[in-house]
Write a structure and sequence with these properties.
The chain is mainly alpha-helical. The protein has 7 helices and 2 strands; from the N terminus they run αββαααααα. The protein has a two-stranded antiparallel ribbon with strand order 1-2. The chain is elongated. This is Type III secretion protein R.
């Protein structure tokens, strides 16, 4: 599911110049009796809360990357009109920021589980149980630790509280 989201955002980023051209060609047209300019104004007003949220929670390094890559990948006229606070830059930069944070959390969980694996393997060797696979014995202990430490609640609380 995460990969699908990343694929969609990167696709939107790459196709942004085409979308901008389509928007320019739509100006002056009418859709269902309404001028497209009215629809564009409604969408512009609606995107401001999203832009504010994304600006607050996006890493500057990621924003700079997408600005620089637009200068390489996009046509010059589209790249020159791109700003750091455009949604087409903020959305993929936010996704990359969140994925980086998720991998950091995953790595910390992985370290804790590796420690359990090492302890179980050493205990089994000390008991002379060389034929028993440490992984099979360690999995219940990992689950027990996760449940006892209220892992899901701790994880979700930690994730949600980063958006203060």
């Amino acid at each position: 599911m995460v990969l699908n989201g990343v694929a969609i955002l990167v696709s939107l980023y790459v196709m942004a110049p085409v979308g901008m051209q389509a928007m320019q060609s739509m100006q002056g047209q009418t859709i269902a009796g309404q001028p497209t300019q009215a629809l564009i104004q409604v969408f512009s007003a609606a995107r401001e809360p999203f832009r504010t949220f994304l600006q607050k929670h996006t890493n500057e390094r990621e924003k700079r990357f997408f600005i620089r890559s637009a200068n390489v990948v996009w046509p010059k006229d589209a790249a020159s009109s791109l700003h750091e606070n455009d949604l087409i830059v903020l959305a993929p930069a936010f996704t990359l920021t969140e994925l980086t944070d998720a991998f950091k959390i995953g790595f910390l969980l992985y370290i804790a589980f590796i420690v359990i694996d090492l302890i179980i393997a050493n205990v089994l060797l000390a008991m002379g149980l060389n034929q028993v696979t440490p992984t099979n014995v360690a999995i219940p202990f990992k689950l027990l630790l996760f449940v006892v430490m209220d892992g899901w609640s701790t994880l979700i609380h930690g994730l949600v509280m980063t958006y203060r």
